[in-house]
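Box 3.1 A note on notation
Throughout this textbook, protein chains are presented in two layers. The first layer is the amino acid sequence; the second is a token string describing backbone geometry. Keep the layers aligned when reading.
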Amino acid sequence: MELIAIVTVLVLIQFFLFSYLVGVQRGKHGVKAPAMSGHPEFDRALRIQQNTMEQLVVFIPALWLFGYYVDPRWGAGIGLVFLIGRFVYRAGYLADPAKRHTGFMIGMVAMLALLLGGLYGAISRLI
């Protein structure tokens, strides 16, 4: 389960980085708190951070369930795919919000694999 813990920390560091970059854009474009919109670059950075946070609510429990009930090595590998997908999502969204879909789909497929795998593993142990 150490690999699952490492991937969890990496994903949380990624989220911390995305949050920091929102602050950078806030300062760069003079978007004063508590405003949640302003310059398009700030808006995109904020949406990237918010969407990542929304994904983590499902991703982290799914990662741990898969690691526990199926295999921590496979779970960590799928978790790294999710992490990469979030970077692809960010790059696409920053370039043009219409280009965010590839990264989003990478992350969603990884998350779905973790969810369904964790469910299958739990049911298999139950039976």
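Helices lie at 2-29, 40-69, 72-95, 101-126. The CA atoms of residues 69 and 122 lie 6 Å apart.
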